[in-house]
Amino acid sequence: MPHQRLTLSLGYDVVLAGDFAGLQGELQACLPGSTRALVVTHPRIRGWHGAAIEAELSGVEITWLEVPEGEAHKSLETWRGLVARMLEARPDRQVPVLALGGGVVGDMAGFAAATVLRGLPFVQIPTSVLAAVDASVGGKTAVNVPQGKNLVGAFYQPRLVWAPLSTLDTLPPEELRCGLGEIVKHAIIAGGDALSRLEASGLDLLAGDKGALATVIADSVRVKAAIVERDPLERGERAILNLGHTLGHAVESVLGYGAVRHGEAVAIGIVAIARLGVLRGWTCAGVASRVEALVGRLDLPTRVPTGASTDDLHAAMGFDKKRARGMVRLVVFSEPGKVRLESLPEAELRALAELGVRA
Ligand SMILES: NC(=O)c1ccc[n+]([C@@H]2O[C@H](COP(=O)([O-])OP(=O)(O)OC[C@H]3O[C@@H](n4cnc5c(N)ncnc54)[C@H](O)[C@@H]3O)[C@@H](O)[C@H]2O)c1
Ligand SMILES: [Zn+2]
Fold first, then answer.
1. For the residues of 71-95, what is the DSSP string, one character each?
2. Pocket of ligand 1, candidates 104, 169, 241: which has the most ligand atoms within 8 Å of its Cβ, to mutate?
3. What pLDDT was estimated at residue 128?
4. FRET label pair with 86: which of 138, 180, 186, 190, CA 20 to 30 Å apart?
5. Active-site residue among 42, 140, 222, 261?
6. CATH of the domain at 140
7. Confidence of residue 318 (pLDDT cuts 50, 70, 90)
């Protein structure tokens, strides 16, 4: 597969590659003279893909730094252990940190790279669809703390994002679907024919067809990249990337992280905000049902699973950061391509929760 390359004005490239071939040359080009690398990953991902990366980086001395899998381990405790092991490896400021994994590895390795020696060069090698289209691009790094998700972190841009599609061969189908949730979000933001392209390739995507995945991943990265280029520190426009996330985060926190996956929760949130739009008259019914049909076609949930009540969801959304003087900021859309932040009365959160639950 020929590489697809996107050069961001933030100073780095996102390369969508068939596998790892060419990564060594790319590292040499953006980090000249680096002969060592600290590779952060999960044990199972190292087992599947470690040999391929070692074969490609034959001239590089690799220090493997393994972290346990799962959102529960995206914590200050894991970060502390990780930075301690990084320091034991005695890097100088030229030694890059490579994050080989999904968003959990990427967010945590990125935060460690940002903090060790006040910044080691950082390279994202996303192995999940979600990380390829979303988490690896844009420089948000973080860990979770008891007070909430992603509340301790830094904006720290990578020097390179290398997304090897070969790693998707081992990605479980349910994780692939989750990535499609964020891809739907990006397609709604993009407008134009992005939604129809997704509609046309839905079954191929679910079957893991590489050609179809490469096309929609590239489309999706372009949407995210364009927004973070214009607003890298989320002073304004970047917030529209939270489409579907207000209810989505509430569903995750009420049901417990792990009971529902992030991409599934986002899909539920997108459908609910579309339904709220119809109720309030800013989205036409045809658009909402088209979005709902696409989410269903991609095998993602359109309603909150049993176990989360309207009251619980409403309460969980009350902790949302974007709340001021009885008003809440919600990302809404009237049609694909027309997504905006709207200041709405707090009561709309309850309506949103109800719509997420109601058949
Ligand atoms: N920084 C950002 O801008 C940003 C954006 C979106 C999401 N995120 C974060 O990303 C995380 C979610 O990312 P995710 O969905 O990739 O979750 P994840 O990293 O937990 O990966 C999901 C599961 O898939 C496994 N996996 C990943 N790649 C694999 C492969 N190729 N083969 C087999 N198994 C594989 C992982 O080990 C894990 O068990 C969340 O913590 C979220 O907060 C960050
Ligand atoms: Zn998300």
1. GGG-BHHHHHHHHHHHHHT---TTP
2. 104
3. 98
4. 138
5. 140
6. 3.40.50.1970
7. confident
Report pLDDT for 2: 81
Amino acid 147: pLDDT: 79
**Would you say the CB of residue 185 lies under 6 angstroms from ligand 1?**
no
In the block, which residue shows the tokens 């070692």? Answer: 54
Got the DSSP string for 114-160?
HHGGG---EEEEE-SHHIIIIITSS-EEEEEETTEEEEEEEE---SE
Which of 124, 151, 170 terminates a domain? The answer is 170
- Same structural domain for residues 120 and 106? yes
Which amino acid appears at position 188 of this protein? Answer: I
Task: Give the residue numbers spanning the domain of 337.
Answer: 173-357
Active site residue 238: yes
Distance CA 211, CA 152 (A): 37
Q: Are residues 183 and 134 in the same domain?
A: no
The answer to whether the CB of 176 is under 6 A from ligand 1 is: no
Nearest-CA residue for atom 9 of ligand 1? 103
- CB 237 less than 6 A from any atom of ligand 1: no
- Indicate if 161 and 186 belong to the same structural domain: no
Q: Rounded to a whole number, what is the distance in angstroms from the first to the last CA of the chain?
A: 43
Rounded average pLDDT over 33-49 = 96
